[in-house]
Amino acid sequence: xxxxxxxxxxxxxxxxxxxxxxxxxxxxxxxxxxxxxxxxxxxxxxxxxxxxxxxxxxxxxxxxxxxxxxxxxxxxxxxxxxxxxxxxxxxxxxxxxxxxxxxxxxxxxxxxxxxxxxxxxxxxxxxxxxxxxxxxxxxxxxxxxxxxxxxxxxxxxxxxxxxxxxxxxxxxxxxxxxxxxxxxxxxxxxxxxxxxxxxxxxxxxxxxxxxxxxxxxxxxxxxxxxxxxxxxxxxxxxxxxxxxxxxxxxxxxxxxxxxxxxxxxxxxxxxxxxxxxxxxxxxxxxxxxxxxxxxxxxxxxxxxxxxxxxxxxxxxxxxxx
Length: 321
Known about the structure:
The structure is a single chain. By secondary structure, this protein is α/β, with parallel strands linked by helices. It has 2 domains: 3-212, Alpha-Beta Complex (Spore Coat Polysaccharide Biosynthesis Protein SpsA, Chain A), CATH 3.90.550.10; 241-303. 50% of the residues lie in helices and 12% in strands. The chain contains 11 helices and 7 strands. The chain has helices spanning 16-21, 41-48, 64-78, 98-106, 129-146, 163-166, 180-190, 213-238, 243-272, 278-303, 312-318; strands at 3-9, 27-35, 54-59, 83-86, 112-116, 159-162, 195-199. Strands 3-2-1-4-6-5-7 form a 7-stranded mixed β-sheet, sandwiched between helices. α5 (129-146) packs parallel to α8 (213-238) and α7 (180-190) packs parallel to α8 (213-238).
């Protein structure tokens, strides 16, 4: 397997050379992507780096981490790489962990691996409580919108992916900035790729995050909602119509019909000053309760539908020999 490392470079001149120096010999190529960095990260690397594996790529305009990764992904695919590992250039991701991320892909157990800082209690002891709570909320939102109920820490950027799987994704449509990791999971689910978590410890260097929760939260809510709807339509109405489709449609119909029936009789009772009969109450409550049970059954079906069979094996077989 030919392994490449992709490093998005934006204001990381203080750490980038140290990160490159720690990348082991199993890696064949290192792509350092200067994402229109105001500190001229690309020129800095070319002038000071001594590792012959490093290839500096440039984005003319700043596109965010997603745009930088798409540039590296395309270069890796063109060069015939088999696996691309994403490591940030700010020193918060230990390159020594790279074999742990690559191994599930080499063994054929996964198509995509990502870090999980929540696997061990000791890993989150030093994590700020606000960040801990925010990541928990984001994780649940991502489970809903992307369908990978078996993962945690979806915004973790330490990842590894098979290039055969990347070739199946619409790379130019990937989100360019902070929503990149979540959008990547959404796209992977559409091709039924298998995703595995890799336990890792949280590391906080002296780099200051540019992410502002108050600014991105409305955007994240909108994008997660959009992807939830698109995933449901594609997987339960277009690609397939299964028992999950029946559960969800029946649950929604029963809940709304029961609620509308009950609301209409409640308003009528207020106008005419008449109390609703027990039969009327039951006719309103029963569809709602059954509808809730149907939606719970749909959720159980969705959780059990997480992809478990890696697709990279048969994708590799399609390649011309």
